[in-house]
Amino acid sequence: MTVKFVSYNGIEYRVLHVGEGGMWLIPYEEPAQPFFYTGDEVERIQTPEDFLEQSSKKKLTAAQQSRLALIQPLLDAQPRSITDRAYRLVVAKEVAQREGTTYKRVLRLYYRYLAQGVLTAPKGCGGGESRPEFDWAIKTFYFSAKKFSLQACVVLIKLDEMKDTGDGSGDTPTEISRSPFAFQDGENVQQMMNRLNAEAPKYYEGYLTNGKPITEENIKEMLSEAEKGMPSRTKWDISDFYQYGTRAFGNYRYAYACSAFAGALSDYIFGKDAPVTEHQNFDNIKVRDVLWLKNSDTGYAHAILVTTIHPTTDDSYGFTNGNLGGMVIWDNYTYIDSLDETTKAESYIYSRY
């Protein structure tokens, strides 16, 4: 496979495969499932030194050989295992069943190897104090800017001022009025969320991004405001315009279409760094949960955000979603009993409180 790296919105990607009308990319620093990019705004960059160093290693340890054997069926099936998500899942599940592990572990190893060329996760090393809020601000406001600006410096300074001094002042946020969940001045989704996330860059346990406590009433209030800014029939489709990097699905991933909408709305309400709990208990769905519904038998995959519980019957729930016919749609509802066993087995619920 030819080694080629590009940068888009300040994030590095490895080019895995070039297809008709675009290319398949995978995030380098935080590997996730590959996605198809059709735009022309990427910039060719040098191959990271760490990747070159890994590629130059000829001798593998026993642990690395074991992991390589685990993902070899996926490597042998390329490019289909890159471009065909359903097929990739089938192969990973077959390997997992045969080797007595989980398909998620197989895919995690595969993605890491594709993106970084490594077979074992690097061990932590000593160093200076970790400042994740600085790392986020630099990536979001500085490297993703078309021009490096004074605004980036101001944001970093403000973040430094917001450090918890130990006197308790960092534990309770101040209530604020959030800007509308809406596009401004030709923004794409990533740019919109960069702006909105900057309004509430620090996560406070037990609070929403507007500074109010997490209650169903306060969540519904924010959802109502979000609907005003992004009403039904607002365009939201599969084009590059509607892509967003988010942790709303657990690990950081570059979401697009329906998952970008659900992830962006979740981040808008709870904060980009709010912790996420992944589970499959469909009897414990709550307002504001993100549901990632999947069925490998049919190829169905769609992400939604729950807006209400039991709107019609005890097993019903209401939701909003993007890319339903290429649009945002609110006030949909469906039934838990309508989900077949395959969908329930392969789908996940992402909760933030």
List descriptors.
single chain, 11 helices, 35% helix, alpha+beta, 2 domains, five-stranded antiparallel β-sheet, six-stranded antiparallel β-sheet, 353 residues
> How many strands, which pairing sense, and closed or not: the largest β-sheet?
6 strands, antiparallel
- Taking pLDDT < 50 over at least 5 consecutive residues as the criterion, the unreliable ranges are 123-133, 141-148, 163-170
Number of domains: 2
Helix/strand order: EEEEEHHHHHHHHHEEHEEEEEHE
**How much β-strand is present in the residues?**
15-25%
How far apart the termini lie comes to: 43 Å
How many strands appear in the DSSP assignment?
A: 13
How would you characterize the overall build of this protein?
- With 353 residues, the chain is of the alpha+beta class.
- The protein folds into 2 domains: 5-116, no CATH class; 164-353.
- It is 35% helix and 20% strand.
- It has 11 helices and 13 strands.
- The protein has helices spanning 49-56, 62-76, 80-83, 85-99, 103-116, 132-143, 150-161, 189-199, 216-229, 258-270, 341-346, and strands spanning 5-8, 11-19, 22-27, 35-37, 43-45, 243-246, 253-256, 277-279, 290-295, 300-309, 316-321, 329-335, 348-351.
- Strands 8-13-9-10-11-12 form a 6-stranded antiparallel β-sheet.
- The longest helix has 15 residues, at 62-76.
- The protein is globular.
- Residues 123-133, 141-148 and 163-170 have low confidence and may be disordered.
